[in-house]
Amino acid sequence: METIGSRWRRTPVALLNLLSQPARTLACVLGVSFALLLIFMQLGFRGAVANTANIVYDKLEGDLVLRSPDYVHLYEPRMFDRSWMRLVQGHPMVERVDPFFIMLTRWQNPPRPSECTKAPPDGSFRTVGMMAMEVDHPVLDVPEIRAQLDKLKSPDALLVDRATRAEYGPSNCKQFSDKDIGSPLELGNRLTHIAGHFQIGTGLATNGAVLLSDVGYSLRSGVDTRERVSLGLVRLRPGVDPQRAKASLIEWLGQRDPRCLQQMQILTMKEQLGWERARWLRETPIGMIFSMGVILSFIIGAAIVYMILANDVSNRLHEYATLKAMGYSHVALARIVLVQSWLLALVSYLPAAAISFLLYELTAGLSKIPTAMTWERVWGVLALALAMCSVSGLMAMVRLWRAEPASLF
Question: Which of 68, 117, 138, 348 has the fewest C-beta atoms lying within 10 Å of its C-beta?
Answer without folding.
Answer: 117
